Amino acid sequence: MDDNAIVCRCSDLTVKDVRNLIAKGFTTFDELKRISRIGMGPCQGRTCAQLVLRELSIATGKQISELKPGTYRPPVKGIKLGAICECSTGGEVHD
Amino acid sequence: MIKTADVVIIGGGISGCAIAYNLLKKGVKDVVVIEKAYLASGATGRCGAGIRQQWGTEMNCRISKLSSDFFENANEELDYDGDIEFKQGGYLIVSSTEKEHEQFKKNVTLQNSLGIQSKLLNLDEAREIVPFLNTEGLISATFHQKDGHLNPFHTTQAFANAAKRLGAHIYTYTEVMDIIVEGGRIVGVKTNKGDISTNIVVNAAGGYSQLIGNMVGLELPVFSERHQILVTEPVEPVLGPMVMSFSLNLYCQQVPHGSIIMGRGDEGEPRDLRITSGWHFLEEMTKTITKVLPPLKDVRLLRQWAGLYNMTPDRQPIYGPVDEVEGFYLAIGYSGHGFMFGPATGLLMAESILGEETTLPIDMLHLNRFKKGELIFEPSVV
Ligand SMILES: Cc1cc2nc3c(=O)[nH]c(=O)nc-3n(C[C@H](O)[C@H](O)[C@H](O)COP(=O)(O)OP(=O)(O)OC[C@H]3O[C@@H](n4cnc5c(N)ncnc54)[C@H](O)[C@@H]3O)c2cc1C
Ligand code: FES
After folding, report:
1. A95 located within any domain
2. Residue A42 maps to which CATH number?
3. Domain extent at residue A57
4. Among the atoms of ligand 1, which is closest to the Cα of residue B34?
5. What is the largest CA-CA distance in chain A?
6. pTM for this structure?
7. In terms of CA atoms, which chain A residue is nearest residue B259?
8. Distances in Å between the alpha carbon of B317 and those of B63, B223, B275, B308, B332?
9. Residue A57 falls within a domain, yes or no?
10. Which of A30, A81, A89 sits opposite B297 (nearest CB)?
11. pLDDT tens per residue across span B43-95
12. Contact between chains at A30 and B305 (C-beta distance less than 8 A)
């Protein structure tokens, strides 16, 4: 992939950014995520996680299946805070 | 892995990394940090990372002021190639009971006497700082502009990088399995990657500190408690300060990146090492926050997660050596506010280990205060 290709659209990181971080020693998905916010955007890494794992696999020589993706944290899709408490008080949920 | 070390620190959070940096800066040679996962994988990387100087005891005011002053110059002092993202948007702490309001008056007097420029505000003044604050049910507020927020990963990394440049040996994905004590004295640690001989071990293991205590035969008077937190999608800057309330049990802050982070304690939390996310927290949190800061109704929740508070009976940390085992030091039990103490922890613990006079007195934070019944009363904790 081209150095300037975007890996993570949500948090604005290019292939080059990711490679630089891996070279600095952040060699797991969890560490990359925490230092750079990659995979922490509104899509929660659904768009970029595979690309990041691919780069990690190339750099570490490990199979993608051996690498741990980050923890998928609730919720699956962004919900308005107001909708959560309306829902819990029995109100209607709308978006 | 090296075979012999002057000091072995267990835990690669803010405490462990800051202690290592200070020891090396003072000229100790072989300093080892052992972290079972990655740096800041414990409470440090899960915390709100809010820092305040608005405390109710002289000791806490001084420890937090020392730390905050350090954070102001930390990028330079630690020669960090990134940014620790220190935002000093202030803390607006609101009161909702008469008793709390009375306490706030005392706190501000104390803080001002120690050089902390906090102010007591009426509700109109509070609304000048946060215009959409719903003041219904509130009485007053205090504000201190120099309080704020940092990026906990970068802050920990900055200490770790500086320590490494001074020669620290930091082993991640390495777990301490046991500590060897002979004749009441520390002689080494066993890890899953090899053994290290040492006469000094520092327990900076956060929520796991009691397990490390057991390794030297101590039952430490601490327990761990899950605390949950959530973050919203990034939005335009709307919230300058951290908004916090002890009586309403909440804190809420917008980070420079735009996301809003909020948390609260839960009375019924189990005392174990669980860190899964729960629905009950989400319900209580959103109900409380949308009452105090109504426009947040329309902001979207992005993620929730949890971490461990390491709690002591008086909710104050335990610093220093222990009487029972020679060479065993504690930097534990922060009870939910150990991130903001990080720089002070590093300095004071290094001084204590080297037998130097400590910059601030820490004798009252010694483990034996619980045996002596000399607990510390801090009125201002969440
Ligand atoms: C939700 C939440 C919000 C918080 N908000 C704030 C806040 O706004 N401001 C504030 O100041 N504080 C806050 N805190 C508290 C703060 O996070 C902690 O007090 C602080 O991070 C403690 O740092 P530490 O380095 O002592 O411990 P930790 O960061 O927990 O580090 C301990 C490390 O030890 C490692 N470890 C444990 N056992 C072993 C072993 N056997 N071998 C090797 N390694 C081991 C762990 O993996 C861990 O990384 C919050 C905490 C939580 C959970
Ligand atoms: S593209 Fe990376 S988090 Fe959305």
Report:
1. no
2. 1.10.10.1100
3. 6-88
4. 43
5. 52
6. 0.94
7. A41
8. 11, 12, 21, 14, 6
9. yes
10. A81
11. 999 999 999 999 999 999 999 999 999 999 999 999 999 999 999 999 999 99
12. no
Is B107 strand, coil or helix?
helix
Give the pLDDT confidence score for residue A88 in this predicted structure: 64
> Does ipTM top 0.85?
no
Q: How many Å lie between the alpha carbon of A78 and the closest alpha carbon of chain B?
A: 5
Q: Which CATH number fits domain B7-48+153-222+314-372: 3.10.28.20, 3.50.50.60, 3.30.70.1670, 3.40.30.10?
A: 3.50.50.60
Question: Is residue A71 in some structural domain?
Answer: yes
- Class (C level, CATH) for B87-146+225-306: alpha beta
Mutate to test the pocket of ligand 2, among A46, A73, A77 (most ligand atoms within 8 A of CB): A46
Q: How far is Cα B105 from Cα B95, in angstroms, rounded to an integer?
A: 11
**Facing residue for B287 by CB, picked from A35, A44, A85:** A85
- Distance of CA A33 to CAs A49, B38, B230, Å? 10, 12, 17
- Give me the residue from B283, B301, B305 closest to A88, CB to CB: B283
User: In Å, how far is B253's CA from the nearest CA of chain A?
Assistant: 15
Distance CA(B322)–CA(B368), nearest Å, equals 8
Closest ligand 2 atom to the C-alpha of A42? 4
pLDDT value, residue A77: 77
Contact B55, B118 (CB under 8 A): no
* Residue A14 counted as domain residue: yes
Between the CA of B4 and the centroid of ligand 2 the distance, in Å, is 44
Give the number of domains in chain A: 1
